[in-house]
């Protein structure tokens, strides 16, 4: 369900703290930024367990470094801001970025009466600028005094940057008469190429689980969802996705592992698809499915080569059934022993290429019908192997260029 269901043991609050308006003189903030939520706190009941995955970008942001360290402790709160990524703000333990990120955790911890290391910080926004600390110092107390259980929808709005819509989803299932709920929120629109999960995502559940159990479930869920989406091939410095379990349902995860994993997979895949559908300037939602590879790696290599091709993506935007661009992308994929005669390509149910050659029954009119759709499936057969993988992507439109050309201006 697209509506958000509350999770017992989770309270939150959001505010416009002026972070999006506090950029230096080289960045012009929109007048709308004075009204947008940009700072939130999520408080977790005692005993909640939290797992997380983070960006693989070497230049990971200060909050990622702090969060990785704090994850060794029992987490009792999340603090999230948009408008400033606190990335590229210095190297080493003395960097201003690390100091500011830790200070934000300290401010939250003091107001909640918990330890600093029990807070996970997250930031998203413009890279290369120090956090405007006054925005945090002036608003943390107000946020803590405003914590309520039904504010996750506002947190979902808080984390938006170039997103046009918020991304939320909940799932429920029953075990022995007990109802288990999983609720997730995410942000992401551009700078999307998963090397973990290129976005911010926060998932909450009332299941009872250890951190290790949650980590295994989250890793599986991310690999089949956030790690299968791409808008532009760029991996952010700030990517993070968390899974927090309050245990308030009284049901242990070991009593329903399959059901829980299945529901969690639905939550993450639904959020991942919403990110693609809200891709910067996107007009098409595209699945690239590769079959017959000797390995998952080969299938993903072909799928991403096609999904990242500017020529393929612009043809998709133009609704131009230019199958030669798809064929050329497949041919340059970095996999061993790709045989031309084993390659077949489909647009929807229309066969373009059969066994390496143009299908004699194919017509341009058939291709045009498929390319005119807002949701398109490109299926590529590369052999007789058992592996099959899909990635989801967008077209490349004029608006993508405009959005990113004007991001700081």
Q: How does this model look, in words?
A:
The protein is of the alpha+beta class and 409 residues long. The protein has two domains: 10-278, L-amino peptidase D-ALA esterase/amidase (4-Layer Sandwich); 285-406, Roll (Ubiquitin-like (UB roll)). The protein contains twelve helices and 15 strands. The strands form three sheets. It has a six-stranded mixed β-sheet. A five-stranded mixed β-sheet has the order 3-9-8-7-6, sandwiched between helices. A four-stranded mixed β-sheet has the order 1-2-4-5, sandwiched between helices. Strand 11 and strand 12 (350-354) form a beta hairpin. It starts with 9 loop residues before the first strand and ends with a helix. The mean pLDDT is 90.
How would you summarize the topology of this molecule?
Elements lengths: L9 E6 L23 E6 L4 E6 L7 H9 L6 E8 L11 H17 L6 E8 L6 H5 L2 H5 L7 H7 L8 E9 L2 E10 L12 E6 L5 H13 L16 E6 L11 H21 L7 E9 L2 H13 L1 H8 L5 H9 L12 E4 L2 E5 L2 E2 L5 H8 L3 E7 L5 E8 L3 H8 L4
Parallel strand pairs: 4-5, 8-9, 10-14
Antiparallel strand pairs: 1-2, 2-4, 3-9, 6-7, 7-8, 10-15, 11-12, 11-14, 12-13
Helix pairs in contact: 1-2, 6-7
Shape: globular
CATH class (first level) name of the largest domain: Alpha Beta
Q: Largest sheet, order of strands side by side?
A: 13-12-11-14-10-15
Poorly predicted ranges? none
Mean pLDDT: 90
Strand content: 15-25%
Work out the radius of gyration.
Answer: 22 Å
The major pleated sheet works out as: 6 strands, mixed
Number of strands: 15
Can you write the helix and strand succession as a string? EEEHEHEHHHEEEHEHEHHHEEEHEEH
**CATH homologous superfamily (4th level) name of the largest domain:** L-amino peptidase D-ALA esterase/amidase
Number of domains: 2
| End-to-end Cα distance | 37 Å
Helical residue percent band: 25-40%
CATH topology of the largest domain: the name is L-amino peptidase D-ALA esterase/amidase
Q: Report the total helices.
A: 12
By CATH, the architecture of the largest domain is named 4-Layer Sandwich
Protein name: Arginine biosynthesis bifunctional protein ArgJ
Family: Belongs to the ArgJ family.
Organism: Candidatus Ruthia endofausta
Function: Catalyzes two activities which are involved in the cyclic version of arginine biosynthesis: the synthesis of N-acetylglutamate from glutamate and acetyl-CoA as the acetyl donor, and of ornithine by transacetylation between N(2)-acetylornithine and glutamate.
